[in-house]
Design brief:
The complex is a heterodimer of chains A (136) and B (362). By secondary structure, chain A is α/β, with parallel strands linked by helices. Chain A has helices at 19-30, 44-54, 68-81, 100-105, 118-135, and strands at 6-10, 34-37, 58-63, 88-93, 110-113. Chain A has a single domain (7-121), classed as Cobalamin-binding domain (Rossmann fold). A five-stranded parallel beta sheet of chain A has the order 2-1-3-4-5, sandwiched between helices. Chain A is globular. In chain B, strand 6 (162-167), helix 7 and strand 7 form a beta-alpha-beta unit. Classes of the chains: A alpha/beta (136), B alpha/beta (362). At the A-B interface, helix 1, strand 2 and helix 2 of A face helix 2, strand 3 and strand 4 of B. Strand 2 of chain A pairs parallel with strand 3 (92-94) of chain B.
Chain lengths: 136, 362
């Protein structure tokens, strides 16, 4: 993996509310990460293909349209099919708390919903990267 | 993963392997050299096209449109899109893909975003290595999109075969057009956003600039600083020869609507044909290798020098200069002399076996 943490930030589906995604992208940049921002209206296929081409360490998907279950399942499955199961898959947006465990079953490592602090996300990614480094 | 097997998979066109190989080259550690060494014999086939211009002029949008047109003509292409690294945090937002959404998922296209990681000049240090990897992977064309460039980011011209410089209406008067800088490295000039009211003025200013300037009368090759390694040369190897028989076309495009892009690709391919004719491409390749070797040699020598001097000696010299007891030029002379002596010393020591020797023969 790369020296710098590379993160893909993507918004799937018909959801144009990208303010949160941009704030996260900016916060990760300020934390020294390289953030590949794909823009809005992405398909699951294009998101996973982007992760592959960019050799990303982390994928952050932002969904505010309530379709998170569908996309978490689809993207999680495609990541594994493409040998990208070791990519840290994070979900953000408006997510019902009671669904979090089911989403984790699809391969989502953590959910950062409304009210999450950007520094929590930065901290989570850094800890994950440090643990991965240690594991070699 | 074994470097040899990774290289093999890159040559077979496996995309995951390609992505990993690019990361290795980008990180520039020891394995970087190994993977490049394994792939290098398979390079040299791709047409390398650079796209540069000021921030917001439509580089990514034009690359997107150009790439679609290239696909229609049956070409496979790799795209390297460079965006700046923050000098304060080391982080970067790589946003060129936002405009290239059409291209993802096409197996004939591979896009890689790169941060400059501290390098100036519009490209990252590893950009040319990444181009080699894409070339080896069998792409017909490799497009390199620079960071938003101003007047001096001319490194792209030494890295690619054909440089497209994009201008947009409303950025300045005709004096801007005759200043030195990226306009001079253009093989093809584009006025993008040609539907804007000032477009005709911009077009005319550029046309006038070219009419006055051509044929290029300057003695020096106009393409960026000449490599020292090519110093024996009469300059032919360094010039991109755009000034000898190639009439730089100025084209109008509206990239967001794909207008003018067919003509742009025609011009790019005509430039390629022009370079192939009469061995110009070979001369260009030679110049590029000379300049690349010079850069690497400089880095290697600097590292060796710093190593043989040790950090304390360098710190001490910095102090001397700060205190104004030494000027920077004399300081460098002194350091070079010292390094030479210590290297000779080391040579003798290894032959003699043990003794530290006070060799003072300079």
């Amino acid at each position: 993996m790369s020296d710098r943490i590379r993160v893909v930030i993507a918004k799937p589906g018909m959801d144009g509310h990208d303010r949160g995604a941009k704030i996260i992208a900016r916060a990760l940049r300020d934390a020294g990460m390289e953030v590949i921002y794909t823009g809005i209206f992405q398909t699951s296929e294009s998101i996973v293909e982007t992760v592959l081409q960019e050799d990303a360490d982390v994928l952050g998907v932002s969904i505010l349209s309530g379709t998170y279950e569908h996309y978490a399942k689809e993207i999680g499955g495609m990541l594994r099919e493409n040998g990208l199961g070791d990519v840290l898959f994070l979900l953000g947006g408006t997510v019902s708390r009671q669904d979090v465990n089911r989403l984790k079953g699809y391969g989502v490592a953590e959910v950062f919903g409304a009210g999450a602090h950007t520094q929590d996300i930065v901290g989570y990614i850094r800890e994950w990267a440090a643990a991965r480094e240690k594991a070699g | 993963m074994e470097v040899a097997s990774l290289a093999q998979r890159v040559l077979e066109g496996e995309r995951r392997a390609l992505a990993r190989a690019i990361s290795l080259v980008e990180d520039g550690r020891a394995r970087d050299a190994e993977i490049l060494a394994a792939l290098y014999p398979h390079t040299g086939n791709a047409h390398r096209v650079g796209v540069t211009g000021p921030p917001g002029c439509g580089k990514s949008t034009l690359v997107n449109a150009l790439a679609r047109t290239m696909r229609q003509r049956g070409l496979k292409l790799g795209i390297v899109a460079v965006d700046p690294t923050s000098p304060f945090t080391g982080g970067a937002i790589l946003g060129d893909r936002i405009r290239m959404g059409d291209l993802v998922g096409d197996p004939g296209i591979f896009i890689r975003s790169m941060a400059t990681r501290g390098s100036l000049g519009g490209l990252a240090r590893a950009t040319s290595g990444v181009i080699e990897v894409l070339d080896a992977a069998g792409f017909d064309v490799v497009i390199v999109e620079t960071v938003g460039a101003g007047q001096s980011e001319v490194g792209i011209a030494q890295t690619v075969h054909t440089t497209i410089v994009i201008e947009v209406p409303g950025l300045g008067d005709d004096i801007q057009a005759i200043k030195a800088g990226i306009l001079e490295v253009a093989d093809v000039l584009v006025v993008n956003k040609a539907d804007q009211p000032q477009a005709e003025n911009t077009f005319r200013a550029l046309r006038a600039m070219l009419d006055v300037g051509a044929p290029h009368s300057g003695a020096a090759g106009h393409h960026a600083p000449r490599a020292m390694l090519a110093g024996e040369d009469d300059g032919k190897g360094v010039e991109k020869l755009s000034d000898k028989g190639w009439k730089i076309p100025i084209l109008k495009t509206i990239a967001s609507e794909g207008q003018g892009v067919e003509a742009l690709l025609d011009a790019v391919q005509a430039h390629r044909a022009y370079l192939v004719e009469g061995g110009r491409l070979a001369a260009l390749a030679r110049a590029r290798v000379a300049s690349e070797l010079e850069t690497l040699l400089r880095e290697a020598l600097l590292a060796e020098l710093a190593d043989s001097l040790g950090p304390q000696e360098i710190e001490r010299t910095i102090d001397e200069v700060l205190a104004r007891r030494l000027d920077p030029h004399s300081a460098v002379d002194g350091l070079v002399r010292l390094a030479r002596r210590s290297r000779r010393g080391k040579g003798r020591r290894s032959r003699a076996g043990v003794q530290a020797q006070p060799a003072e023969t300079d």
